[in-house]
Amino acid sequence: MRTGLGRVAVSAVSAAVMTTACLDDNPWFEEPTGSDSGGGTTMIGATTTVTPPPATTTSGSTTDEDDTEDDSETTDTTSSLTTTTSMTGVMSVCGDGIPEGGEECDEGADNADDGACTTACKFPACGDGLLQAGEVCDDGNPAPDDGCVACQVPRTCAEIHMLDGNAPSGAYVLDLGGPDPVAVYCDMNTTGGGWTVIERSALDDPIGVALFKDYPVNLDQPGEAPFRLGRAAMELMLANTTELRIDCGGADYLLTSSLALFEGEQGGATCENAAAIMYKEASLKGYMKTDVLLCTGFLGAEDGCEGAWYIDEGAQYLCQSEPFPWEFMIPVTSQSADTFAVDAAVKDTQDPVHDCHQDGAVRVVMLR
Predict the structure, then answer these.
(1) Could you read off the pLDDT of 106-159 as tens digits, one per residue?
(2) 43, 74, 263, 339: least CB-packed within 10 angstroms?
(3) Which distant-in-sequence residues (6+ apart) come within 8 Å of 166 by Cβ?
(4) Domain residue spans of the chain
(5) What angle do CA 108, 110, 114 make, to 5 degrees?
(6) Which letter does DSSP use for residue 45 in this model?
């Protein structure tokens, strides 16, 4: 037992007691308050406070003549374990096999970044930057627009919407199964969301090329108009989509099978290249048709024809169908209007003007 430090403390206490006894006869005596960093005794009136000497940290041997301890008892060793102090003041050592403090788990030597308890003594979780079983990716951030959503790699906007129901409309990255990721615009608002935009074409700057043709436009600007994916990307999308929607942001729209996307490619270059498409839903100026066959033309203005993907009420004869399908034998649009085409040879002028032919209209073609 060290004795040197004990004698110093006893002497200080004895001196303080003697001084207190002397001051009992003169309660008005006031000892000046000291600011000596080494501690000491401060007395105000007849009250005495004893401040103990500061603690002394020793490393290795000591020079106290009465210190007979073995040096090995005071040697500080450094461990390879990670130590942290929790809010409760409990010292935790990650890797010692004892879950404590702020640790979620601790399996000792079995801690592993691909195991049930990571080397940070945390349970594995999506977003921790560590690739775990069941995760395809983990980039350590919650952003859904960088090609990794909820630790999965999305192939469609519908998958993004399913993985993150709060993901907003905007530009995203999809892995379509091709050699490179593809930038697209996801519409998360229209009829339940999850739509992948494959073409965006404005009335004042239309693309005007049949959808079955390979005609990529502004691939690095999926949120702008005009925009169009290449044919190869569209083909890859067909494996994971079932619906094709064409609309101009209003109440007028067409909904059909995604397999109809490349209809017309066997029809040749003639402007009479048209076919009867089965539409699950077709809405025009308040008239709704369901499960209806409508004769649809495919070649656009740039192809030298009426409009890319258009429906002419009066030209239904091209598919041996009855004219004016929206209301029996009564035209809904102006004569020969190429509805749903923004590159239309004849625009609708009959009030209310069809959505796709209103000033500033932008037609969107999307898959889900």
Answers:
(1) 999 999 998 999 999 999 889 899 998 889 999 888 888 888 988 999 999 999
(2) 74
(3) none
(4) 4-69, 83-124, 137-193, 196-367
(5) 130
(6) T
